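hey
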């Protein structure tokens, strides 16, 4: 039970989306409003409303998780987004927004070639899903947002991701330079302290030797040498 509580506490403490992305990704979630345009003209049934609410909640979790995804997890997030879009296309043409989000998720791939292949796969999936629409007009209305916004959004997301990775790499290099400079400064201080300590010890040894020689012949001079050693 304590382990579960600790895991839940870590989940609550961790931000939904990495802080490096800022607040903009949260604003993109407003695009889900496209799902509700239909209901301005046709009120949903209770079952449809419940399913839509569950879908939106699940997709918000999926969207946030995609920012933490790596490797095969990115492909899983993209595929799941496409499946949600395909599941709703027959009842709500606003499901195109899921495919647009899936295109944006492709930017999580560091390799631009893999990102472009993923975007192409999303477009193919969207065209196949459009075949589930009730009519050619509905199919066109479903594909129109994807054709007009999908490619610009995906390209913008890829460029933004590349710029962010470049900035992170530059920051890491700057941190490495600062770390190396700190090490060099510490080594310089260590050498200076070593030289100073060696000089001081040599001087103490000479004065101790001189004090030993003056102990019997000149006690006053011996005391002065011992006082210098103490100082």
């Amino acid at each position: 039970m304590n382990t579960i509580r600790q895991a839940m506490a870590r989940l609550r403490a961790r931000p939904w989306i990495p802080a490096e992305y800022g607040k903009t990704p949260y604003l993109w979630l407003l695009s889900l409003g496209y799902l509700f345009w239909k209901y301005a003209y046709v009120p949903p049934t209770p079952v449809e409303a419940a399913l839509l609410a569950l879908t939106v909640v699940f997709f918000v979790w999926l969207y946030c998780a995609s920012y933490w995804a790596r490797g095969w997890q990115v492909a899983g997030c993209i595929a799941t987004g496409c499946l949600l879009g395909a599941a709703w296309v027959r009842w709500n043409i606003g499901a195109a927004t899921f495919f647009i989000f899936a295109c944006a998720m492709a930017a999580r791939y560091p390799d631009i070639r893999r990102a472009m292949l993923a975007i192409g796969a999303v477009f193919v999936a969207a065209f196949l899903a459009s075949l589930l629409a009730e009519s050619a007009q509905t199919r066109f209305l479903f594909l129109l947002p994807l054709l007009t916004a999908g490619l610009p959004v995906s390209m913008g997301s890829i460029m933004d991701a590349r710029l962010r990775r470049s900035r992170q790499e530059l920051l890491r290099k700057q941190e490495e330079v600062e770390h190396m400079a700190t090490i060099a400064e510490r080594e310089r201080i260590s050498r200076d302290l070593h030289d100073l300590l060696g000089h001081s010890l040599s001087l103490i040894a000479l004065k101790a030797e001189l004090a030993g020689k003056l102990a019997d012949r000149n006690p006053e001079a011996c005391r002065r040498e011992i006082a210098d050693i103490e100082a």
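The first helix runs from residue 2 to 13. The CA atoms of residues 211 and 223 lie 7 Å apart.
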